[in-house]
Amino acid sequence: MAKPKSEWPAKVLALIRAGNLPAAVAQIKVAPTAADVLRLQALVAQLPSTPALVQLQKVLQEEHALLAAPRLHRAP
C-alpha cells in the first residue's frame, strides 16, 4: 500500500493565498521533507507573480537546497 502524500504543501499554500506570508515562511523553515518543499514550489509557481511571491520562491529554493543536502538531513 502506498504511503499517502503529505498535506503540508496544501496547508502552507492556504497560508500564502490568505496573505499570511510570514507564517508561510516560518512553516517553510520547518518543512518535513525536501519533497514537500518541491511540491509546494510547484503549487506556488501556478499563482500569479507578485514581488512577495518572488521573494517566497527564493526562500523555497534555499530551504530545498538545505534539506536536500545529506549532511543536514533531519531525522524522523
What's the topology here?
Layout (H helix, E strand, L loop, with lengths): L7 H11 L2 H9 L4 H12 L5 H18 L8
Helix pairs in contact: 1-2, 1-3, 2-4, 3-4
Protein described:
There is one protein chain. This protein is mainly alpha-helical. It has one domain (8-72). It is built from four helices and no strands. The relative contact order is 0.16.
A few lines on this structure:
This protein is an all-alpha fold. The chain contains four helices and no strands.
Provide tags for this entry:
66% helix; 76 residues; 4 helices; mainly alpha
What is the overall number of helices? Answer: 4
Quaternary state of the chains: single chain
- Strand fraction equals under 5%
Average pLDDT? 88
Give the structural class. mainly alpha
Sheet with most strands: none
Shape: globular
Number of structural domains: 1
Level of helix content? Answer: 55-70%
Count of distinct strands:
0
Rg, rounded, reads 12 Å
Low-pLDDT runs of 5+ residues are none
